[in-house]
Amino acid sequence: MTESNDIETNEDGTPSINRIPLMIVLISGAFIAILNQTLLGTALPHIMRDLNLTANTAQWLQSIFMLVNGIMIPITAFLIERYTTRRLFLTAMGLFALGTLVCAIAPNFTVLLSGRVLQASGAGIILPLMQTILFLVFPIEKRGQAMGMFGLVIAFAPAIGPTLSGYLVEQFPWRSLFYVVLPIAILDIILAYFILKNVTERTFPKVDPVSIIQSTLGFGGLLYGFSVAGNVGWGNWQVITSLSIGAVTLILFISRQLRLKKPILEFRIFKYKMFALTTGIGMVAFITMIGGAIILPIFMQDMLGFTAFESGLMLLPGAILMGIMNPITGRLFDKFGAKWLAVCGLTLLTVTSLMFTNLTTETTFMYLTIVNAARMFGISMVMMPVTTAGLNQLPKKLMPHGSAMNNTMRQIAGAVGTALLVTIMTNQAIPSQGTSGLIHGVNMSFVLATIIATIGLGLAFFIKHSRPGIDPEPE
Length: 475
Prior knowledge:
- The protein is mainly α.
- The chain has helices spanning 19-51, 55-58, 60-82, 85-105, 109-137, 143-171, 176-195, 209-232, 237-259, 273-303, 308-336, 339-355, 365-380, 383-392, 399-427, 434-460.
- The chain crosses the membrane at residues 20-40, 60-80, 87-111, 117-138, 150-170, 176-196, 208-229, 235-254, 275-300, 306-328, 340-359, 365-391, 412-430, 442-463.
- Pfam families: MFS_1.
């Protein structure tokens, strides 16, 4: 198969290709990349026992994945403009599959950590690349529906991860987690080889080593600092050093990108007001969503005595509901735009977050399941519609940068949200009052989540031009 970059187009300007098999390949790749990110949490105690690790050491298996993932995402816009769609996707999936194999057969922690780095380097390319391809192959009036399918993956994979992981590690060795993912990755590579076509246009930007180093230190420093702050505290020297280096380097990176004719990551896209606004709203929704996914399992396992499998099971109905709703909200977006979907969704998110501020030792499994499902329903009305509305405002040439920026901001929001909510939960806990005192910390973390959701709700009223067919604002 050739690597020609000649792209046949339809009358609407989109590439002339069969979209259904393409969607299957892309969604499968994104699904296992996101699923893999959430599988390991439940298995860490088993890995610690088997490889004789401390909790701090084992946590690096999670942290390194998010760190490398977050470093690769901003660079993806540059890679999309330099390499063909097929080559980049096959390379990313190849790295991911190789990393999965290394993890499965790893005899010690060092090899296992190396496998996670390989996995993350591939996964960090897959998501923004997939988003870019979807926006290029679908006409503007069908992008909501396409992004709804993408949203199904983003919602469903992280929620079934802990449940599936809990089941596998109770029945089989922890290596089974990687042996389950590996065949799917290999099958996706084979399908992509025969189905995937080149749809992105190459502009051959020059490699700028300084920008790549600055991006790595800037985003990596912030992500690492926020990731460990929730566990070790904001005053820890690692956190202060990491956040300081990250912030200073990121400022240097941004100023350099604004001076370059062909930057690695185009920060000028924030001149498109609706893109900037919807990216902010998406970050707010992601902070509250990731907070629930992190805080609720801790509350259930450490304070109410549920198993890891049961806490994963509690999250499952919300994931299923969100998965079902994403394609529906995608169609609603194509018809009505994002504004009122976002307003309704964020209202529901605010109310349900408020309902989690009164948890007690008597709180039932059913209450947690129903309220969490309602929260996920609200998030399904926000995440993909606002993302699509924002990216719709960008011209085609900026689409890779918009996708990379959107995914980068989401990664940062996830790290910041987790750190803030875990810190509030820890600092506001009153251990002298026993379990009830610990639950007070959980309630306070959801008070913060409610405030953040309320801010998002206020911003949603300012969404304009979110209906398909509106031309992007001029540069």
